Amino acid sequence: PLEMSAKKPVPFLRQVVSARKKVHRDPRFDDLSGEYKPEIFMKTYSFLNSIKKQEKEMVQKQLKKCRNTEQKEKLQQLLNRMTQQEQAQKKEQKLRERELSLKRQQRELAKQGKKPFFLKKSEKRKLELAEKYAELKRSGKLESFLNKKRKRNAIKDKRRLPSQKNL
Fold first, then answer.
1. Keyword annotations for this protein (predicted)?
2. What whole-number distance in Å separates Cα of residue 157 and Cα of residue 119?
3. Which of 7, 27, 46, 96 is a plausible cystine mate for 33, CB 3.0–4.6 Å?
4. Do residues 151 and 139 make contact, with C-beta atoms less than 8 angstroms apart?
5. Helix and strand tally (H, E) in the chain?
């Protein structure tokens, strides 16, 4: 700043050199960054899957070598988290593929001149459940899954019933 005499009164409108204010932009909410499309994102960053796979193998090797219980527990948690993320990604991919196939079918019907029919959320859920049951039946885990579901429902029913003390 310019040095001014203390004896001279300061003018009311003093000229100050203006500094440009930095404009921060968040790429998540900015239109300049483009629109998020999961298909394009997955194609662009598909190399990450191979890196994640290598890291998972490294963690498994470390887990086998490790003797320290605390370290072993941490590695086990990390491995579990990696596995869960992998499963979630596969599930998301299946869901995306299913939606894409439904869209393709609708386009084909529209090309034939038929009126497009869009499924409700409940109908989509039913289709997803039917697919899940078919997958479980194929893998031979359907019976154990149904047993667990029965037990869970029985516990819920017991909780809803009035207690014997109140009778």
1. Coiled coil, Nucleus, Ribonucleoprotein, Ribosome biogenesis, rRNA processing
2. 32
3. 27
4. no
5. 5, 0
